[in-house]
Records
---
Amino acid sequence: MAEVREGVIKYRARHRAEPLPQWTANVLRELGAWRGILFRLHLLGQDGRRYGGAAWGNVSARLPPWHEEGRRPFLVSGTQTGGVAEAGPQHFAVVDSCDVTGEEVRSFGPVQPSSEAMTHASIYRVAPELRFVFHAHCPEVWTAARRLELPRTPDGVDYGTREMAWAVERLLPQKQTRAARAIVMTGHEDGFITFGETADEAGEAMVRWLARARGLSPRGN
Ligand SMILES: [Zn+2]
């Protein structure tokens, strides 16, 4: 059952446990502000009645220096931290490098990175100008993905896998995806991703699609 496996890390994790460096503080504040909004909207969270009790949702932000080609470290919320109402530095990790083909993620920080870190990494790799990626679980948007004409990863592609990373990499260059700033993960129950060059772009896309899904008529148009 996909629900029960939610939150399990599927890549090889090379993680160094150490405090988050002070130079991440500014990006962390910006990311944390939007994370708090997503939590209030239940786009992140933890509930014993959903996904076998596993926490859901994760957010990330690229870290400077922006110009360094080929090296795109990013800050990402820690594994199983979706249920934390007020996240602090102790709930985030830095992903140094990510090898999607080898399914290996190198990171450091006070907590292991989210089990979906590879999906975040693939977005930053394909689209260097993007700096924020939010992954939420949103039943309204997920169910209405087709009617909303949102870009979708193929059915059967599960979260946290290289197949998901590749599926996202294929969708990302498409005009429709860039305009929507969103991707629905068909094979990952309620899975929804938004992204942007700023935290506001990623956050606003999340809220906008939720509003559109809720504004649809119950059946057809
Ligand atoms: Zn998820």
---
Amino acid sequence: MEHTYYRDTRIEVDLDAIEHNITQFRRILPVETKILAAVKADAYGHGAVTVSLAAISAGASHLGVAFVDEGIQLREAQIRAPVLVFGYIPPHAIEAALSFNLTFTVFDLNHVRQIEQVAQRLRKTAKVHLKVDTGMGRLGIAPSEVISFINQVNNLKWVELEGIYTHFATADDENSDYFDHQLHLFEEILQQLDELGIEIPLRHAANSAGALRMKQKWCNLVRIGISMYGFQDVSNPDVKLKRALSLKSSITQLKCLPKGSGISYGKTYTTSTDEWIATIPIGYGDGLPRHLSNKGTALVGGTRVPIVGRVCMDQVMLRVNKAMPVAVHDEVVWIGKQGAEEITADEIAEQIDTIHYEIVTRLGSRVPRLYFQNGQLVSTRNALHSEEGNKR
Ligand SMILES: Cc1ncc(COP(=O)(O)O)c(C=O)c1O
């Protein structure tokens, strides 16, 4: 296969892990429960198009994105599965959302009326999911407003209420009191709809952690994000997930700097003796957090080595031990396994006081993605230039 990237830093995505993780959920969920794969934010940094295809082939029926542009990206890749846009679709984006068959999230009647007007003009029914705020305090209408909202939406000719949903604020907390409270509020609404004979085909609440708790008997769809990528924040004896993403580079330069040498901007690190310093072509411009300056580690030759000095935009330095068998071009692992050692996104998150979601999601578009199946490289993605560009 021809190279479609020329960098020594890359993200490797194991598509078998994505498929395995979806299959794990398929196994624990009732057969009638559908799986929506959350592929917003470029599939949490893993690459939206290829991950969507892998998720669909493993049994996901729906996809979820945050914005219309993310939905269009999927449609332009010929992906035809239903795509729910979790976020607000502003008036200027309604026509695009309809043209690309994206499903709306709604929580404001004026917005629904705007959707109706555009849908009528285009002669195209708009599918919408009503968002209920049961305690996340983000998007959604109050539970008390649901019935009247639905009645008004059901009077519209070009808007079809296909779904109703809510989002949990604390599904991954050990203490499930607030989760139970939100779930109870939502199930009360669904029960009320049943009693009133109001049928809404898709009812959903659970994200990954919620689905791992498996309590929502009134729902028939789950929205799986972080666990599809292999992160398990709630234990479930029947589920064992696999990490899909590794971040790797290789050594660009290796040199011995004498005692007292400064390393990187601001000279925040000075060698305390003769030290072997490896320069690596990755920086905060790729999503390697600058907060890892003088703090983070990488794997080289199966051993952990420290970042020294500040992380630059495109490069960073590691202190290696020359007693190690280390050479220019050797592999450096930032996230993933090397030999018996592993650095996880969770570990990095803890070092800089954030969450694993942010660590993988911030990995930049200029890092090429390499996709593996059965241990073989099956495709690459380079957002900087096309395959055609490479051949010129
Ligand atoms: C509305 C909605 N549903 C589902 C998800 C997926 O959540 P998770 O990645 O925790 O599974 C998200 C992500 O934050 C979301 O915003």
